[in-house]
Each structure stands twice: as structure tokens, then as C-alpha cells.
Amino acid sequence: MGENDFITYEDLSLNEAYVLQIEELGIKIENKLRWFNAVTAYLLEAEKNKVSSFSFVKKIEPVMKFVFKSPELEAPSQLFKQQSNLFSFDYGPSFGQLQLSDVPAVHSKGITGDGVLLGLLDTGFNWKNHESLKDATIVAEYDFIFKDESTENDSLDNPSQHNHGTLVFSIVGGFKEGSLIGSAFGSDFILAKTEDIRSEKHIEEDNYAAALEWMESYGVDITSSSLGYSTFDPPEFSYTYADMDGKTTIVTKALELAFRRGVVTVSSAGNEGGTSWFYITAPADGINTLAIGAVNNDNQIAAFSSRGPSYDGRIKPDVVTQGVAVHCASAGIFSGYIIASGTSVSAPIASGVAALLLSAYPHLKNTQVRNILIETADNSSSPNNERGYGLLSAVKAIEFPNLEASGGTFLLNKMFITNENVNPQSVTINYSTNGVDYTQKQMEFDGNLKYTIKLPYLFNDELVDFYFTYEDNSGYPFREPLNVNYKFFYGSLDISLYTDLKRTYTDYIVSEPYPNPFYPELKSFTSILIKSSGNENLTVRIIDPLGQQVGYYSTVTIDDENRFDWYGRNESGVAMASGVYYFLIDLNSKLYSRSLVLMR
Fold it and tell me: Cα separations (Å) of 562 from 1, 406, 489?
């Protein structure tokens, strides 16, 4: 279920009786889309009329078909080989594309993506027959075109069908020293073949959505797709720039639903920067989806990289990585390699950086991963619609402090990657709630890379700003950040340095009670935050350990964050005894539950 661990309407199974009625007409169901409460099928006009007459059918919509665009390919060149003898691995020609985002330094610390499940959606994967991919850990693979468990070419496929997916996979998951090393080669992978490039070279949105549901059922942590949809096959109508609003296309909505379930969602921004379309393409328009633009190895934006903003005015792309002259595997040749350019090849580098961050800090929520990547990109202080928040850095992302909910309060974590001479006894956090008086606390060192401190109990929404001080082994002092401070609102897991700080809980719709456990002698109330689009009916019932209702709250929500506070008393004002209490929350007929330990 991802970070939120609650059941929503979209998670319910389809009504199989309804599906059976359609199948009894002789219609073959292509995909069942639980998140959309829909099925897809090829219909003749007469069949369409019959299906539309069913009382349970709300509407019938055509599935969009998209023209597949392959990245620009070149033969490998000696010019792309760079020295990498300062690091733990021999990256060969792939060194430069990873070094631009500081990946080799992170690999050298033993952080390679271990413990992360990364999903790829593409044309297919000839991974068993390439030296850089044959030893990759594949948790599952599925062909959504031919409905089988092999993602390499089928006998009916175009001969180049699996080429694109193979090269994309190698950029993040490949490992062959001296030839190619992927950005997160230590991750586990789940592979979905969703694109059909035969004849008219079209792909279908329903395969993409079905693949995301399938991956989420395996507990995928990150999904990455190098698919940009803007040019469509006739006779279907085409999407327009006005549809790039984060809420219109099926693929965009599917990625946003995956994000709601705790998945980090990554998409190439598109290669339309030099065309009349110009803008990002779905699903890169997603509100929470990380749209990845492309730069060359001098960190200059590629002419082809799609620009922003989204139609509704949001900054796009979100971040960039190298997408010009990227070294990757050539499908069909066991030891073959090729050079590719496009946002198709920048996206897997970015998803690999996300995997390294999550591998270093497995407790991170997807919202935190997204926030940290944006905060630590090199243009975060002045984002624009060419390069977004800027170039990703694996080192900066992992060195950025993060919060972890623990025992009713928070742990604050910090790592040092580039400075190997830090004196562990000197690492100190300096924090303040008024910007004037700073408390100093020594951080605990785990003996490897991580420093941690347990924060004291504070009031929700209290602004905390902080910085670190430490010395190297020669006694030379350092301050981080150098002349500004990190900041966060207590009760939120997002830390800010350059971007606007918002009061927001990590839970997408309904937060956990905080603090939890709840000690009334330490804090007079516990809070739950409910996010709403406004004008929704909200009720909260509080149930005691005996199953009796002891509290009730009802209101109409505003378009923002709605806060419910409980003071540990029943409706008559009597203080309740210690025990486990339950909050039953009804938000516009969607039900959620949260539990709380009250301690007196």
C-alpha cells in the first residue's frame, strides 16, 4: 500500500459479475484497471452499443494510441572514455554520465541501490543476452502486449522491439566493469513491456496503467518510464498542450495514483524542445511525477529537451541529468554498446539517483525523496522552465539531512560522503525555534556513515531552523550550510534550504495522529491533518478501548489542510484513561482509520 497504508476506493477489486456480462458478449478483455474501475477491450460499433446499454457502464472512451519515438543513436567512440581510477569501480565509457551527477562517489561508499525495488516500463528487455545485464536481480517481468512472462522479443514483434528498453535498463541497472556501470546497479528490478512498436508504431495507455498496478502489487519503490506522449496515430483525436495539466491523460493519472500509494514516480520530460509541440509530454506533466530533462556533459540544456511549464503553470521539467551522448547497452549483441541521446536516457540516471538515496535511507517516504532531489539540484534557488530545479547530485541528496518519525517524535539523520576526515565526536546540530537562541546537541555516529539525533518534543507547526558544525581530524572547523540554515515545521517530514516551505504532513490524505503516543502532561492535544479539495463533508469519531464512542467531530472542509485536535477527553470533558484509541474518519464517504496510544 505504500506510505499511507490505507484502503481507498481505487484499491477495490472490479465487480467480476460486471466483467462477466461483457465477456458473455464474446468480447475479450485486454486489461482490467482497478484504479480506474475500468476495463479495456477492442469493440465493434455494434458491441459498443450493447456495452453502453449496461446500467453499470458510466461511459466508453477510446484508448489513445501514440507514435513511438526512438532516441538518437550513435556508434561508441573512444572520445567518451574517461579515467575513473579514483573510485571503487572501473566505469569505462559510462563514467562521465554518472560523474556529472556525482554517482561514483556514492558507489565508493558502498551505496549502490541495495534494498530498493525499481520498476521500468518500456518496449521490452533483452537482459538475459547482454553481458552488463545478465546478472541483474529481476523480481518479476511481464509482457502486457502478448500477456506472458517474457519481456524480450516475441516471434511477432518488430526485430527492434526490445532495443529501447534494453538500453534504458542498462543505464540504471547494468554492470560490466570497464564497459558500463548503471547508476543503481545494486537495486532489484521489475520489468514491464508496455509499448508495441509494430507497423503504425503505437503504444496504448491501458498497458501502461495496468503495468503500474501490477508493479505496485509487488511493492515497487520507484517506477521509471522513458515514454513521452504527444504525437498520436489517426484516427484517434490527439491530446493538446491544454491536456498537459497533471490530471487529464490516463498515463498521468495512473502515475499520480501510484504516487498516492507511496511510489516514487519518474518520467522522461520528452524530446519536443525543437519541435512545434515544445512542451513536456504526458506523463511528465504529473503534479508529483519527477519529469527529467536532458543536459550535455557540460551541464548545458539539450535543444531537444522538452520545456515547461505544465499547462496549469507548474515548473517543468523538475530536474535534469545527462541525456546527450549516454553510453548504454546494444540489444542483440552480447558485448555490444551504443551511444544514445534523449530524455529517454536521462530518466534512468535520475531514477538511479533516487534509488541510491532510498537505499541510504530506507525509511524515507516518497514525498521526502522527491523533496530532497529537488532541494539538492543545482538550480533549486532559481528554478525555471528549461532545466527546472537543476542537475541532480547523488552526493548532495544523500548528504542532505532528513527526518524519520520515531516514538512520537523525530530522528534527524545526516551523512557525509565527500569529507572523509570528519571527527565523529565533533558533529553537532545547532537548532532554534525562535531564530535567536540555539541549542547545541552532539549527534550519535553509527560507526559507518550516518549521524543521528532524537529531537525533543515540540509543538506541531513550530518552525525549527538548524545547522551543523563539525571539525576535521586536524581540528579545522566547518559549518553546514555555510551561511544559511535548514528549516522545517515540526510535524512535517520535509526539510527546506532553498525552496518554499509549506506546512504539510507526509500522509497524502489523512495524517497519522501526532504526537503518538500522546502524553497530555507533555502536550495538551494530539492532531490529525486532513488534506482536502474543499467543500467536503468530514466527520471524525473517537472510539475507546472498549469500543464505545467517546468523541465526535463534524465540519465541511476548506480547500487546504484541515486540522483536527483531540485533548484526550470525552464529549463531557472527562479525561480518558490510558489505552489504544481509534479515529474513524469519513471524508466525503471515503473511510479512513487511525490509532493512537494515550498515556497518562
Answer: 24, 24, 16
Residue 190, pLDDT score: 99
Measured N-to-C along each axis, helices 343-360 and 366-376 cross at an angle, to the nearest 10 degrees, of: 110
Alpha carbon 293 to chain centroid, angstroms? 16
Q: Contact, 374 vs 315, CB < 8 A?
A: no
Give the Cα separation of 159 and 152 in Å (integer). 10
Is 520 strand, coil or helix? coil
Name the segment(s) of the chain with CATH classification 2.60.40.4070: 526-598
| Dist CA 316 CA 309 (whole Å) | 5
Read off the pLDDT of residues 367-422 as tens digits, 9 standing for 90 and up: 999 999 999 999 999 999 999 999 999 999 999 999 998 876 789 999 999 988 99
How far apart (Å, rounded) are the C-alpha atoms in residues 562 and 510?
A: 10
Which of 533, 550, 553 has the alpha carbon at shortest distance from 542? 550
User: Any idea which architecture 526-598 has in CATH?
Assistant: Sandwich (2.60)
Q: Which CATH number fits domain 72-398: 3.40.1010.10, 3.40.50.200, 3.40.50.12370, 3.30.457.10?
A: 3.40.50.200
| Residues with Cβ within 8 Å of residue 31, at least 6 apart in sequence | 39, 40, 144, 206, 207, 209, 210
pLDDT at site 531: 82
Q: For the domain 401-489, what is the CATH code?
A: 2.60.40.10
Give the chain's residues under pLDDT 70. 1-9, 64-85, 199-203, 229-237, 408, 459-461, 501-508, 589
Whole-prediction pTM value?
0.82
- pLDDT value at position 56? 93
Secondary structure element (H or E) that encloses residue 592, with its range: strand 590-598
